[in-house]
Each structure stands twice: as C-alpha cells, then as structure tokens.
C-alpha cells in the first residue's frame, strides 16, 4: 500500500510510522549518472546497526556489566518481536484472548521458522490477565510470510476496530505502575500517538459494566498532527471520558475557578462547579526523549545517535515532570518514563526532581510490583559527555558550555562556584577537527582530561536504585526507564510558580532547535496508525489553519479537507435540496473559530437546543434515567448547522464547566464521544429525527433506548452485515420483516437476538449484546457501519458460532449461497 491513495499528511505519517529498517545506499556513481530506470537496479541494504560513540558512551556509563556487553549488543541489533495488547474494555476481549490461547498459539507453533523451542506467540508474563502478547515472529516476518497471513490479518483487523492495540511490550509498562482506578482524574502529559492513553482509559473503564466511570483522562500533546494520531487512536475506544488538549506540557494550564470571568461563559452563574481547580490523581509523564531504547524497532537511530541528543532534552524533561507534579493532588502518583537508556534523561532528571521538591515527593519503591517484569535498579553514578569530553562533575564544565550542560545533569546536582579548576578544560575548538565539526565522537581521547577513565564519577546519595531500567537482553524487549513518584505534600513554594514564570526563571529551558529535531519523539515503541476514518474534531480547526497563528503546514489542510469531504460522502448518500449550504460550503472556508483565547480551535459548546434534544429523546425513546440533557456538546457555535453532537461523561462535564468559568485555559482538540450525526440526505431529512446514532455512540446509548430498536435472528443479522442493505421481503424471519417495516423512517438499531429473545416485545440489552446502527428506509433496511466493522463482526460471529455447529454464520467475506443479491 505504502500510503497510496492517501492524502499528503497521511502519507507523511505513514512514512514516519513505518518500520524503517532499510535504506538505499547512495553511491557517488549513482548520484552522478542516475537515470530514471536505474532505480530498479539499485540494491537495498540494512541500516548499519552500530555506532562507536554509542558503544563508548554506554560502556562508560556501565548500564550493563562488562560481561554482559556482548549479549546486550547482540539483542539490541536484532529486530524486535511484535507485541500487542487486547483492549480489556472491548466487548470481545475474552473471545479474543481465548482465540489466541487456544487457536493461534497452536497453529502458529507449527510455523516457527527458526525451528527453536520458543513459543510462536505467548502472553507477556508480567502483564495482568494474559492481555498482552508477544510474537516471536518479527514484524517483517509477519508481513512477508504468507503462512502467517491469517494471523497478520487478524492483528490488522482487530487493531483497526480497537479490540487490540499493537504496542511495543516495554511501552506497556509505565501505566501499570500508575495504579489507576475508575474514579481517577488522570493527566497524560505527552500522549501522542496514544498507546498509553488507551491503556489508561481501559483502566478507568475497568469493572464499569457498561456504566460510565466517574474518572476521566486528559491526553495532551504539543504537536497538532500527532494530536490527530492520538485522537484517531483513542477514538477506537469509544469513550466519553476523554479530553485531548494541545499544550506544551511544561506550561499545561492551571485550570481553576475565576469568578470574575464567569460572566463570559455559557454556564449560568448560579451554577457552582463541582471542582474549583483541575488537579489530578494520576499523572503520566512519558516525556520526549532521544529514544535509543527503541533501536531494535527504529534502527535509523544508530546513524543519528550522539550523546548531545540526551543532553539537549534534560532540562525540558525536568520542566515537564515538575509541571506534572504541580498538577498532581497531594496523595497522588506520577510515573516518569522514557524510551531512552541515557542516565542524563533518566536518573539525572529524577534526582533533580527530588532535589527541587525536597521532602514533598517520594520516589517509590515498587520492587514488589509486577515481579515477573525483569528490570534493573537505577544508576547512582554516571558521567556527562559533551563535545568529545567526559565530565564527571559540574566543576569540569567549561564556562562557555554552562548554559547547555547544567549542574542538574550530574549525580550530586551541585552547582560549584566557578573555580579555576575548570580552566584546564580545553575548548571545543582545540578538540575539533578545525572545521567547526562539533559532532560527539572519539577523536579527542588522546588527551588526558578527555580520557574516559581519568575522571571518577560523582555518586548520588538519593535512592535512585528505586528507578527501573529495562534492557533488551533480559527479556527480549526494547529498553525503557520508569520512575514512580508519590506526592506527600504541596510542593515547596518556589516550585509552585506559574509555568510561564518558571520558564523565564530557568535559563536552561530553551532547547536548541537542532537538538529537538534530532529527537525521536514518536519512537516510543508504538505503532503509529494512519488515520483512516475521518472525523477528528481537531480537523475542523485545522481546516482553517492557514489563517491562524498556529503554525501548520499545508499538508494538514490537505488531510483535513479530505476528512470533511469524506464525512459528507459517508453520511449524505444524496444531496439534500432542502439543506441550505453553510458558510463553509459557500466560500470553501469556514469562518475562523475561536475557543476561548485559542484561535483556530473550534469552540466547545454545550448543546442546548431543547427542541432538537427533545425530538431525539422522543424518537429513540431515551430513558429518563439516562443523564442526557446537559451532557451534549458540539464544536460549532452555529446551532443551525450542527453536524455532530458529542456525549460527555459527568467527569468531563465538570472539567468543561470549570474550564469555561476559569477563562477557557484549556485548548481542546477533541472531547467526548460522537453520539449523533446529522443526516442530510433526502431520506434523512424526511425522518422525524435528522440525527442518527453514530457507531461510536451506540454501545453507550444502547441500553437506554426503547424505540427504533429490534432483535434480528442470526441469519438476518448476518445478511445485513454481508449485503449491507436488504429489502423487507428478503428478510428470512417474518416477524423481523414485519417489525422492521413498522419502524419509523430513519435511524434504527438492530440487535442480534440471543436464544429466545426474538419474539419478546421490548429489547433488553447488556454489555454482551451485539448491535449495529441501521437506516430504516421506505423499502429496505441498510447498515450504517463501516465496511471494516462489518467484516470484523462477521469474523467474530463465525468464531463465536464455530463451536456451535451454526451453519447460518458463514466465514467472514464468504458468500453462504443465499439468494439475496448485494444492493448497492
Ligand atoms: C515519547 S512520545 C509519547 C508517547 C506516548 N506517551 C505513547 O505512549 O503513545 C513523546 C511525545 O511528546 C510530545 N512532545 C514533545 N515536546 C512536548 C512538550 N513540550 N509538551 C508536550 N508534548 C511534547 C511529542 O509530540 C511526542 O508525541
């Protein structure tokens, strides 16, 4: 596929997300004499999986013992086994786990091409409830070996619909140490592409049994385009308990009640918000890092690796972590993690946090948690490498480098007074090759000062051994670093300063752009998914980005215009003569949207059109007990042209209300669960209710609707999935035929009947019910579910019924010989 047929941004994301194992070497001949036809003749070579600077650096840091070095290096050069997680809040998670445990484990064992004794796929022993799996087939084998195709197809399909998430094993670790409970408010500070956010949401939903949990997650990322990936990833979770924001994590806003501004808001001033300040029970601080823990998956890092990458991120990492701790409730927990092995991004950051926070923060000893996860204690000593020099203490840092190499990078954190001691350190010019090349390298080791063994590293007196470092050769994984903090009391006053002030005060905060560019921000071990379906809320904002202060490239306009276009195609099967074009249709561009003080971001509006809400409630017979009114929002302030209505949980509602009263500090890219979509087709506007239930919203509202919902027998249900649209006379079950034709014109819900439930008058659903949104037309019923969802559901039904001898459910994609012909 190679991203073919997708928009420019999608192709770019595809390139960034793919397994970038191969590069084409460019010979001088080739560049001089190349003709278009020559491209076919060139050969492709694997990336060189070595870098002397890397070896020297990590040998010196002693992240593994000398005896282990060869094994460490051997593993870090091997391709990484594929890993994935079953989404525990999926309706089908038990079936999927059983399928893996019973079917795939056995059938794939026979395919293990290495002839080794190892299992072909196995659950990760440290992940609870057999929900995470590792395959001993590399990602490339999975893609290329035809006999593994069925398994690969299974992974792809279940991933697409959100039942599993492909995620590097070690990247699954940090959320497990957060101890998230369903009532927690959680902040994921650097969340894109969102694998860990997905895990956090699953934890919030644990044991919710179809009810919305009282907790919520705010997933934040600085990068707008990566926010799009995050929205796409988490959309598969169908959650009403998530807000996606777009801030610098180190400046994440303090959201608190500002009574002076309440007059600006849509909230009646008599309403007292439930919370007066946005603080979190849990914070995940999975910071941007140099990413060398992902070398097995992203071998191009071998080429770009240098010690400066880690040094350049250290201060930003501290700032983000400190902001996280400031936003954490007393008694709350924060996990700091990186996919880097570098102590300057890990132990040095943790040590500086502890120093700044004094006794208000505890570095937790979590050695008894997840005992089967093999990890190593954090280091207590390390050195800093800068411009070809080894530095053991801040006093070794030449004056001219002190704005870059900070005292916080060293184990003691001591900022020595300037002394003449550092005058013996030679300047870079003296070590460099004369042409200004400042690449970190090995060229300067002749000098006694630069010699790696001549300096004794400082030793930290902090309990840094409580940190965890996961290394590749311990359990055939990537590398990761995790530290867990507990907030014992409020931070010292000096650390509570407003983030923007903190930024000014911390002169080391500015990150040289070239260093930031080197950072492998997306290399946190997770598969980046190409957004397929087009609906992300951020997209409406991005559509106007050319007129905005937010810097966005043209490509994002490209993708987002695609999105809006595709949305209209999906929903509006026929152009409606009665619907007046909105301003965006007339001009091709909608007016600039403003969300509070954020230009270019669609506003978050509580949907209060009582007439429409009443009609929706009446049409679907929504039970009074369901908290409906007050839980609906839109992203369009023109109430006459609202296309989508989103549902928000109580917890999200509280945050939005606080945000409105507090002067809209949050820049919200996406919020809530898309529950209704406007139908603008001819049939659509003839319906008594022009809002159809969206696929994402259906599971949530399903138990609360009493009208426009009918049971179908397995055979009619399956036919609907297979043929997408069926005329009333073609339904097999006469009772279904009659009930379907008696429904009101418009959206309806068809529920797969369980034994004996077909003929009951009222439809009772629970978390195990399988249902699809449909459209009841004048002569037929059509499904309103994406092709991929239909395929996945058919496949699941064939697996579910395979042991029951039910021949009425054919394998997905196979015709069962029925006479019904596909209706276009
Ligand atoms: C290591 S990745 C996060 C991976 C993510 N937690 C996951 O599990 O999918 C780091 C992320 O930080 C984001 N980022 C970089 N600088 C940031 C900043 N100052 N504030 C917030 N996010 C930032 C990057 O865009 C990137 O998506």
From TrEMBL:
Localisation per UniProt entry: Nucleus
Domain SAM-dependent MTase RsmB/NOP-type positions: 72-488
Biased composition (Basic residues): 1-15
GO biological process, one term: tRNA methylation
GO CC terms in record: nucleus
GO molecular function ontology, one term from the record: methyltransferase activity
Catalytic residues (UniProt): 339 (nucleophile)
SUPFAM superfamilies in UniProt: S-adenosyl-L-methionine-dependent methyltransferases
Compositionally biased intervals (Basic and acidic residues): 16-29, 415-429, 812-824
Organism domain of life: Eukaryota
Region (Disordered): 1-46, 411-449, 502-525, 567-586, 804-824
Main location: nucleus
Bias (Polar residues) ranges: 430-449
Keywords carried by this UniProt record: Methyltransferase, Nucleus, RNA-binding, S-adenosyl-L-methionine, Transferase, tRNA processing, tRNA-binding
Binding-site residues for S-adenosyl-L-methionine, renumbered to this chain: 190-196, 221, 286
Similarity annotation: Belongs to the class I-like SAM-binding methyltransferase superfamily. RsmB/NOP family.
Name the UniProt record assigns to this protein: SAM-dependent MTase RsmB/NOP-type domain-containing protein
Source organism: Penstemon smallii
Taxonomic lineage: Eukaryota, Viridiplantae, Streptophyta, Embryophyta, Tracheophyta
């Amino acid at each position: 596929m190679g991203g073919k047929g997708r928009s420019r941004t999608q192709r770019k994301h595809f390139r960034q997300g793919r397994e970038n194992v191969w590069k084409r070497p460019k010979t001088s001949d080739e560049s001089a004499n190349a003709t278009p036809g020559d491209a076919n003749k060139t050969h492709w070579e694997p990336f060189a999986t070595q870098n002397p600077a890397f070896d020297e650096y990590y040998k010196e840091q002693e992240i593994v013992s000398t005896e282990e070095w060869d094994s460490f290096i051997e593993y870090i050069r091997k391709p990484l086994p594929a890993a994935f997680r079953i989404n525990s809040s999926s309706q089908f998670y038990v079936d999927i786990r059983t399928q893996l445990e019973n079917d795939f484990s056995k059938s794939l064992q026979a395919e293990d091409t290495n002839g080794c004794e190892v299992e072909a796929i196995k659950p990760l022993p440290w992940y609870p409830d057999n929900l995470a799996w590792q395959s001993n087939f590399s990602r490339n084998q999975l893609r290329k070996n035809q006999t593994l195709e069925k398994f690969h197809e299974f992974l792809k399909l279940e991933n697409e619909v959100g039942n599993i998430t492909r995620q590097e094993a070690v990247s699954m670790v940090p959320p497990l140490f957060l101890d998230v409970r369903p009532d927690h408010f959680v902040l994921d500070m650097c969340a894109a592409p969102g694998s860990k956010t997905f895990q956090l949401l699953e934890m919030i939903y644990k044991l919710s049994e179809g009810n919305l949990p009282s907790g919520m997650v705010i997933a934040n990322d600085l990068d707008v385009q990566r926010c799009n990936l995050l929205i796409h990833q988490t959309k598969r979770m169908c959650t009403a308990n998530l807000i996606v924001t777009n801030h610098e994590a180190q400046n994440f806003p303090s959201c608190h009640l500002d009574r002076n501004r309440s007059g600006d808001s849509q909230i009646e001033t008599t309403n007292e918000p439930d919370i007066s300040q946005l603080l979190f029970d849990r914070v995940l601080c999975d910071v941007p890092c140099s990413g060398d823990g992902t070398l097995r998956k992203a071998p191009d890092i071998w080429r770009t690796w240098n010690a400066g990458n880690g040094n350049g991120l250290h201060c930003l990492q501290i700032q983000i972590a400190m902001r996280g701790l400031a936003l954490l409730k007393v008694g709350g927990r924060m996990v700091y993690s990186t996919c880097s092995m570098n102590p300057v991004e890990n132990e040095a950051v943790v040590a500086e946090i502890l120093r700044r926070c004094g006794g208000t923060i505890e570095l937790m000893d979590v050695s008894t948690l997840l005992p089967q996860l093999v990890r190593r204690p954090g280091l207590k000593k390390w050195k800093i490498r800068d411009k070809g020099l080894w530095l053991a203490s801040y006093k070794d840092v030449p004056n001219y480098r002190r704005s870059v190499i900070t005292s916080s990078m060293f184990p003691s954190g001591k900022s020595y007074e300037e002394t003449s001691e550092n005058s013996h350190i030679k300047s870079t010019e003296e070590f460099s090759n004369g042409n200004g090349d400042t690449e970190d390298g090995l060229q300067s080791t002749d000098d006694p000062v630069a010699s790696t063994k001549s300096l004794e590293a400082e030793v930290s007196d902090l309990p840094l051994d409580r940190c965890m470092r996961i290394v590749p050769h311990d359990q055939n994984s990537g590398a990761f670093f995790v530290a867990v903090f507990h907030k014992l009391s409020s931070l010292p006053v000096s650390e509570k300063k407003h983030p923007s002030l903190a930024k000014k005060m911390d002169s080391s905060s500015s990150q040289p752009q070239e260093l930031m560019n080197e950072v492998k921000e997306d290399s946190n071990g997770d598969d980046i998914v190409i957004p397929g379906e087009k609906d992300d809320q951020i997209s409406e904002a991005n559509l106007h980005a050319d007129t905005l202060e937010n810097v966005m490239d043209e490509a994002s306009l490209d993708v987002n215009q695609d999105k809006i276009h595709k949305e209209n195609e999906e929903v509006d099967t026929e152009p409606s003569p009665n619907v007046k074009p909105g301003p965006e249709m007339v001009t091709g561009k909608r007016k600039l949207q403003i969300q509070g003080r954020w230009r270019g971001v669609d506003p978050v509006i509580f949907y209060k059109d009582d007439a429409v809400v009443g009609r929706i409630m009446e049409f679907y017979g929504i039970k009074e007990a369901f908290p409906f009114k007050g839980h609906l929002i839109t992203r369009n302030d023109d109430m006459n042209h609202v296309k989508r209505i989103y549902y928000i949980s109580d917890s999200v509602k509280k945050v939005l209300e606080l945000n409105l009263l507090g002067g809209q500090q949050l820049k919200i890219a996406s919020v809530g669960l898309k529950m209704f979509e406007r139908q603008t087709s001819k049939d659509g506007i003839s319906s008594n209710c022009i809002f159809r239930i969206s696929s994402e919203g259906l599971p949530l509202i399903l138990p609360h609707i009493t009208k426009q919902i009918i049971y179908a027998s397995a055979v009619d249900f399956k036919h609907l999935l297979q043929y997408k649209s069926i005329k009333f006379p073609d339904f097999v079950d006469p009772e279904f035929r009659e009930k379907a034709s008696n429904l009101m014109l418009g959206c309806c819900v068809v529920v797969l009947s369980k034994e004996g439930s077909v003929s009951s008058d009222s439809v009772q659903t629970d978390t195990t019910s399988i249902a699809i949104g449909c459209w009841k037309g004048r002569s037929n019923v059509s499904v309103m579910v994406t092709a991929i969802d239909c395929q996945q559901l058919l496949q699941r039904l064939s697996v579910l019924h395979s042991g029951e001898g039910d021949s009425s459910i054919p394998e997905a994609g196979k015709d069962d010989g029925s006479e019904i012909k596909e209706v276009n």
